[in-house]
Fold this protein.
Amino acid sequence: MPDTPISDLHLELLSALRAVVGERGLLTAPSDTAPYCEDWRRLYQGRTPAVVRPADTAELAAVIRLCAQRGVAMVPQGGNTSMVGGATPSGDGSQVVLSLARLNRVRAVDPVDMTMVVEAGVPWRTAQDAAAAAGCLLPLSISSEGTAQVGGILSANAGGNNTLRYGNARDLVLGLEVVLPDGQVWDGLRALRKDNTGYCLRQLFVGAEGTLGVITAAVLKLAPRPTEVAVALCAVPSAAAASELFRRFQRHDPAAIQAFEYMSGAGMAFVLRHIPGASLPLAEPAAHYALVELATPRAGAQLREALETVLEQAMVDGLLLDAALADSEAQRQAIWKLREEHAEAQKREGASVKNDVSVPVSRVPELIEQATAACEALIPGIRAVPFGHLGDGNIHFNLEQPEGWDAAEFLARDHAIMDTVNAVVQRLGGSFSAEHGVGLLKPYMMPAWRGGAELDTMRRIKAALDPDGLMNPGKVLP
Ligand code: MLT
Ligand code: ZN
């Protein structure tokens, strides 16, 4: 990688930063900063004069003040798992990366009030484990949870597999600590279930993708930990059948549904091909699959029986071809692995264009059918790989390059492909970004989808909090 040219401004800034965070808190060698300059999907290659790794909120605040005084732009970064380039610096080498990784303390877990206070750099799974150790559940589960960090998950307002039951990241946030673009620290770490005291500032920062300030810690809401879980992988004849199956589980016992995921035959085939240890627990592959998980903290809920009752009737009614029920935690994890490895398997298969879209839950089958047809008409041979969170209406309508195509040639068509999918999504009353955010990839969509008063208000909020545009420039707003 070519060396990043360091300007005099940056040289002076670096020595000021070093005085705050020490040698250990500052990376400047291109070989050290390189991992922070590329996104998980390898869509963006940025450059930076430095990655600053403050040890606590006070250090971060001092760092932000130093950058702000010099008009240097900053890019907050957590686990660097964004699907939309939300944490990648620009290619001109002008932006400093703020890594939250060393703000990694679980400050408190309270199993009586069912809350936890956790710093931004804690990997989500570590936070989940800390909640579990106190007998609680930290809801929200995503494929990247071992790497993704609290601050990034909140900044992106991630969703994941359990949104239908517990909501998105924003629904878990009771309080926040934020460093503002001028270096002020807002301590809003309140653990209150009710607090009507003016504008709800915390929700402004959740989902803002680091464009309004940097989240440094949060008070998160916990849930009772399920004591009984039942999981099935179902082969179904169509996406419509998967959708009807979901409705039947809802009619049976809506409070028990922990996840209801859809997978296409194409996506499953990629997982079986590329992921070591993945195997299909069914007699034969199908064109469509549903993964249903029931869970409850209630004793004696007999979820296994509930699962069997609904599935047996679905089989009689032609909605189900085959099903595998997990008999152990190991089998449960093996079934989830088939779902969780979809993104990784797709990456190994080749270039893909992702559409993280949502529609009203009942319209998911139409989305899958119509977007598949539209993309196949646009690029013959394109491989539609829809999968995701059927139970909340969020489908990852991803497209894999046609076999034999050059990856770059395929990716050059990304806007045409995304626009084709989005036209269907718009007809169905959906959104162009359900849980991945806008990042660097999708600001160009904002005027068409969120223009007028909505985008105008967003711009005014941005101008009020970050008048010099130093916080994660180029992300979210066009
Ligand atoms: C997932 O649910 O696995 C991710 O959000 C996926 C993706 O779009 O690849
Ligand atoms: Zn997802």
The two ends are 29 Å apart (CA to CA). The chain is about 35% helix and 20% strand.
